[in-house]
TrEMBL record:
Residues 65-376 form the Dihydroxy-acid/6-phosphogluconate dehydratase N-terminal domain. Keywords: 4Fe-4S, Carbohydrate metabolism, Gluconate utilization, Iron, Iron-sulfur, Lyase, Metal-binding. The lineage of its organism: Bacteria, Pseudomonadati, Campylobacterota, Epsilonproteobacteria, Campylobacterales. Residues 401-592 form the Dihydroxy-acid/6-phosphogluconate dehydratase C-terminal domain. It comes from Campylobacter canadensis. The gene is edd. One of its GO terms (molecular function) is phosphogluconate dehydratase activity. This is Phosphogluconate dehydratase. Its EC number is 4.2.1.12. NCBIfam families: edd.
Amino acid sequence: MKTLKQITNDIILRSNKTRKEYLNFIENKEKIKRSNLACSNLAHAYATLDDNLKEKISKNENEHLAIISSYNDVLSAHEPFKDYPLIIKQECIKDKVSVQVASCTPSMCDGITQGYDGMEISLFSRDIIAMSTAVGLSHNIFDGAFFLGVCDKIVPGLLIGALRFGHLPSMFIPSGPMPSGLSNAQKSKARELFAQGKLNKNDLLKTEMQMYHNKGTCTFYGTANSNQVMVEILGLHTPNSAFVNPNTKLREKVLRYSASYFAKGVKNNSILPIGQMIDEKSIVNAIVALMATGGSTNHTIHLIAIARACGIIINWDDFNDISKITPLLAKVYPNGSADVNEFHKAGGLAYVIKELLENDLLHNDVNTVMGKGLEEYTKVPVLNKNEELEYVSVSKSADENIIRDFKKPFSPSGGINLMQGNIGRAVIKVSAVSEDNLYIKAPAIVFNSQAELIKAFENNELNKDFIAVVRFCGPRAIGMPELHKLIPPLGVLMQKGYKLALITDGRMSGASGKVPAAIHLSPEAQMGGNIAKIKTGDIIEFDAANGKLNVLADDFANRECDKIDLNKHNLGSGRELFVTLKNNASEVEHGAITFGGF
């Protein structure tokens, strides 16, 4: 079993050439002096600014910051960003630092598009967001940038865009989770009842609206909240600002402090450019934190793309090796019953970081917006009796059913494992799966879409032990949508006592839950992956505990891959605009990146 140091050294060695090229790129990038820009350029850039700022900024006498915002009021997590730019500007101007909103990126909600055509452009929206970020920063008039984003593809897209402007100091500012509503367990139960026809649509809608009921991030530990853990451990937030609820005095105080702190840091040159700040050790820390908390499997795609944006090469072996040495310290839904509000109250990420630091499972010689090391991230923001912002250390867990110390974890290893064999390579989130469901040997039932499986369930064709193979769902095929519509019917079948598992080249993300699912199968069917060779009736050995995934058929290697017509997926819901991205997507283990340049 590799140590953290060995894993990190492997990544450093593997990334030696590309990391040097990246650092050379940002270090030698011409820093355009605004005073040297043509008069017309300056006039366009500063037309909306107050007269007293225009001359100072054009002569580089005043630091000038960008805001890249993903605000809209469809996404509950992003609605609070509506008022952030004004508050940020108010705080920065006190330090004689000016701010402009440089661009607004698109942002979509997977929860809204789930199971429908729009979900097929979701993954690619990450790269559109990265490009939108680049558009805003391409004006080259800024000394640093704030990034406002929370949800699934938005933060990875913002990070990729920010790292391509790696010569700029950067700070990410979250909005926080909505207050707790109906429990996640009650929501899941309602969905299973609906799948069985025991709950009507109106009652299901009432249940869902009690769950998703306010402004802020969804409260389960899916990709959005995993994003926040990742950004915190990368040191791009002020400490433990991720899980402070929106529209509270504490949230406003944290926002104002973050804006002022960053403005001062840029002015004093005390905050490193993001491309220098984020290094191989930072990326390893992000993987450790995700494993220790049972984070989203989506980051086995996104973190790879983020790392590549700054010249660092990681793969699923690294995730697997880190998972083996990282104890699971948190139980947050779908890995447990608690939501992220309860996680934060129990000590949250501050306590997790403290435990990992004290047991040498994080690199502490990293840079953050707070300076050198991660000690500041073991503190949480609170309001004192005078309602002033203070940061206090977290010394113990307030609820050991939610967070435990390093020496008595929920599991000795992390939440995500690599599975591989003659079918290909896949990842599985084992932290939410019971031990008796980690192994199954059963016949395959092959489906070429999510809809085919749901129809078979509705026709009562799946009342048996089986392994569902759902293929032609990868990036090159249909954009790699999340397949969460599969979870309620498969969950119902498991409740009936049937042994089953899922293998797919689609995504399942951080809310995968109790169904054993080998996901992100690579190579995908559309790229000639062996998943396209599987036939209904083939016996498959699915061994998540030992990381094995094999078809037990003597002729398997010599079979031809099935091919299907996917042209209908190229039209409607704007999918026709994304065909070029789809046709150029890299393998999922390489980040499903749709553009070149790194």
